[in-house]
Amino acid sequence: MIQDGNGLRFSADELARRLVGTGARSGPLYRQLSDSLAELIERGELPPGSALPPERALSEALTVSRTTVVAAYQALREKGQLERRQGSGTRVAPDRNRETVSGLAGDHAASQFLSGPLATIDFATAALPSLDLVADVAAGLTRDDYLRLTSTHHGYHLRGLPALRERIARWYSDAGTATAPEDILITSGAQQALELVARGCLQPGDGVIVEQPTYRGALEAFARTGSRLRTVRIDERGLDVAALERLLTNESPRLVYVQAAAHNPTGVVLADDRRQRLAKLLDQHEVVLVDDTSLAGTAFDGRTTPAALGTHERLITIGSMSKLFWGGLRLGWIRAVPQVVSRFARVRGITDLGSSLVAQEVALRLLDHRATAETERRTALPVGLRTLTELLGRHLPDWSWQDPQAGASLWVRLPHGDATHFAQIALRYGVALLPGAVFSADGSTDHHTRLPYALPPATLTQGVTRLAQAWTDYLNRTTVDVTLTSAVT
Questions:
Q1: Domain boundaries, the chain
Q2: What are the start and end residues of every segment in region (Disordered) (predicted)?
Q3: Three-class DSSP labels, the chain
Q4: What is the pTM for the complete model shown?
Q5: What are the tens digits of pLDDT across the range 267-309?
């Protein structure tokens, strides 16, 4: 996506990624496409003046005929949502009745949650199901508990419920990293923690180094600050710390974002020797290091590393209740030195006066059951992984992957083509999945896709079976394209 003199201009591949999970699931293809584009326009993700790609380019990205795209564009022009401008192609028409905020335009991690459940098999999200103990603990709160919670304070705890901050601090300290309640800021999930870090640490033009691939929500948070993103690859042992060190020596980035405890989307756990070398970089380079430990507690070998990199004045650790317990709690935290916590609290106070005290009270009690939760995840996740990989081996034997060590998703490499185009075919077979490009700062991982395995076996079976059918269709289409191209040349 680039900015031209009249508005945003979207490439065909970028628009194809935004279209995943939108629109109708039945009817003529041109109508499905026009409905999907209309949905993006109405949500503000394609703001007025945005330039859409040419029909031929979009048809190739979506693996449909050019006639389908022409008909979809024409249907939206007839509804007044698109217009054809001489010399500038097809653009989203102005809408005097709709308030538009250009800053909202864009593909983002929340897209799959905006329109409710998909009328299909959802492989686009990798959220873990809630543990039963969440309901058990929440149901244990009594009227006296609520009275105590509501009568002792006005309800606004910008830094978080004191008892919860103290409990999280004690957990870090018990794990070997001395922590005080003043080092903890409770947030409404890890995503808000990332937004606070980005707004509190970065200015337009600042350099940020991220892993390749990485968590897409982090990419979005940093991009919104106008930062310049650079990447360092990961392998089966995690972040290539030697490559990071060379980049830090040659450049002067403001911030480095890593996931040492467990990596999303690959499930890799950073090797101990690399972890030690990474921690030492803070003493050698003036850089802020952000360690996102949202997946801590899902490691298959039972290792829990809440603060794997120790403590430092420029180290910021992000934690979350979402992966281990339940995303619906919307509870996360930042661990940093008190001065940094105070800065983030001031930034947070501009838009948010604190997270739900009821959710924090539930979280406080859930932390007493952390070992039980980790055991449940450690038992269930490898079973789901084994089910998924057996299905892939049976139905899609040419797909490849490195077995994860944690988390709830498998990072799969396609043997041919790219996932942005394949995702469109998969959707027609009733499976929504994300192309790997959305987990990359430069889109270079589009030969991968992420598949969740914390799903019921029946859902995994049906989903992989449909993916196999879609893959056969995709290969037939690309073979035809290659044959035609060869004949022309």
A1: 2-107, 132-371, 374-488
A2: 81-102
A3: CEEECCEEECCHHHHHHHHCCCCCCCCCHHHHHHHHHHHHHHCCCCCCCCECCCHHHHHHHHCCCHHHHHHHHHHHHHCCCEEEECCCEEEECCCCCCCCCHHHCCCCCCHHHHCCCCCCEECCCCCCCCCHHHHHHHHCCCHHHHHHHHHCCCCCCCCCCHHHHHHHHHHHHHCCCCCCHHHEEEECCHHHHHHHHHHHHCCCCCEEEEEECCCHHHHHHHHCCCCEEEEEEEECCEECHHHHHHHHHHCCCCEEEECCCCCCCCCCCCCHHHHHHHHHHHHHCCCEEEEECCCCCCCCCCCCCCCCCCCCCCEEEEEECCCCCCHHHCCEEEECCHHHHHHHHHHHCCCCCCCCHHHHHHHHHHHHHHHHHHHHHHHHHHHHHHHHHHHHHHHCCCCEECCCCCCCEEEEECCCCCHHHHHHHHHHCCEECEEHHHHCCCCCCCCEEEEECCCCHHHHHHHHHHHHHHHHHHHHHHHHHHHHHHHHC
A4: 0.81
A5: 999 999 999 999 999 999 999 999 999 999 899 987 767 777 8
